[in-house]
Design goal:
Helix 2 packs antiparallel against helix 3, helix 4 crosses helix 6 and helix 8 runs antiparallel to helix 9. Strands 1, 6, 7, 8, 9 and 10 form a 6-stranded mixed beta sheet that branches. The protein has 12 helices and 16 strands. The chain has 4 domains: about 100 residues, no CATH class; about 60 residues; about 100 residues, no CATH class; about 70 residues, no CATH class. It is an alpha+beta fold.
Length: about 400
């Protein structure tokens, strides 16, 4: 009989843990810990606390910044998940000195960080600039569409919302009428309760829309027509993505080419990127002015952007500002002769011209009952004893090839 090493889940092992020793030199968490403690000006957070003489002690902003930024570097953005990591992950425990902040504290800190984030971002740029990580030779701008915590079904103009209110009021009147008729007919209680709940939901939604209409106007569009607003998050926009239409923001970043340091970033509630190049360029100027740049950083640097930013107005702006800009237009591939013979822009396989083939043109294996067509494709059977010319064939089988898209790098 086999023998195994003894183990016992009831035993206990006490491990002494030094939090400082867990933050190893050369790691991202070590750099983050040093930057927050030694480089960031955290005095900007003093104004948010009023507990000098009374009230409970607050979590140190340095602790919250460390665990939040480290979590973001690991693609963790949920406050509850960050709280769990501070309890279970030794690196998070070390960065937070095992203070274990509650998820509500983390969420509130992030939600109210907009007043201090500018100063923190400026300090990061100063550190990167002093370390020689910003080349100032070329900047690239691009964006990504991100969903917001708002439903696209609550988007529309004032006219759309007016029609929605009328539709919901008609539904409430219809349900009230059904409710009275059901009372007289003695309808069962559960059905009545469900209808009452539906009526209450419609009334709340109607009130929500009416309140918004009383306080807001349409957002003006670039062509003069009103843009769609959103009842939940009016700063967001309805936009098309590769995965469908979402309600969200266009997160745009300006990146230095030397070490891919983000020198400016902003989220815009714009469905298209056309109007975002100018504010990104001006924002980049202000960022460098904030870190002590005396000359115009864009006079000697080039700016590259994809076709999403290509408009006549943007090209004119770059020319008038004397900026060496490179904007890809939508037809540049068709004009570039190098793309004419590029393999990745050719079909996966050269199709065979349609013509009639004879049985001898096919390779048939009677033992395995497999068939290969003249194009080299395996034909699978998708029918037997088929009807040909109105008559059923005794041993006639229909075969076809699977069509697959093959990408050639």
């Amino acid at each position: 009989m086999a023998r195994y090493k003894h183990y016992d889940y009831a035993q206990m092992k006490m491990l002494p843990v030094s939090y400082a020793a867990q933050i190893l030199a050369g790691t991202f968490e070590h750099t983050l810990n040093r930057l927050v403690d030694e480089e960031f000006d955290l005095a900007v957070f003093e104004a948010r606390y009023k507990n000098d003489e009374t009230g409970a002690p607050a979590y140190d902003p340095a602790i919250l910044l460390k665990v939040i930024l480290f979590a973001y570097s690991r693609s963790v953005t949920a406050s509850r998940e960050i709280e769990r990591l501070c309890r279970e992950n030794v690196v998070f425990m070390a960065l937070s000195a095992d203070s274990q902040p509650h998820f509500t504290t983390i969420a509130e800190f992030i939600a109210t960080l907009d007043g201090e984030i500018e100063r923190i971002f400026r300090d990061v740029l100063l550190v990167c600039d002093e370390a020689g990580l910003i080349g100032r030779e070329m900047f690239a701008v691009d964006g990504v569409k991100m969903p917001s915590n708002a439903s696209k079904s609550w988007s529309g103009t004032r006219e759309d919302f007016g029609k929605k209110v009328q539709k919901m009021e008609r539904a409430v009147r219809h349900l009230m009428k059904r409710h009275r008729e059901a009372d007289r007919a003695g309808e069962p209680g559960p059905i009545q309760a469900a209808r009452e709940k539906q009526i209450a939901t419609l009334k709340r939604a109607t009130k929500k829309v009416k309140d918004w209409l009383s306080k807001n106007e349409d957002k003006p569009g670039a062509t003069g027509k009103p843009r769609k607003s959103n009842l939940t998050d009016n700063e967001s926009a309805k936009m098309k993505t590769s995965k469908g239409v979402i309600q969200g923001y266009d997160g745009v970043a300006m990146v230095d080419a030397k070490r891919q340091v983000v020198v400016h970033a902003q989220a815009y509630g714009e469905a298209q990127e056309h109007a975002l190049l100018v504010p990104m360029v001006e924002g980049t100027r202000k960022r460098f002015e904030a870190i002590g740049e005396k000359s115009d950083v864009l006079k000697k640097a080039a700016i590259a952007a994809d076709s999403g930013f290509h408009t006549e107005a943007n090209a004119k702006y770059l020319f008038e500002q004397g900026i060496d800009g490179y904007l890809a237009d939508h037809l540049f591939r068709k004009r570039d002769p190098r793309f004419a013979s590029a393999r990745r822009h050719l079909p996966a396989r050269t199709p065979i011209k349609a013509k009639h083939f004879l049985p001898r043109d096919f390779t048939y294996d009677a033992e395995t009952k497999t068939c290969i067509c003249p194009a080299g494709q395996f034909l699978y059977q998708n029918g037997s004893r088929c009807i040909i010319g109105g008559a059923r064939g005794g041993e006639v089988h229909r075969r076809q090839a699977r069509v697959r898209a093959v990408r050639i790098a």
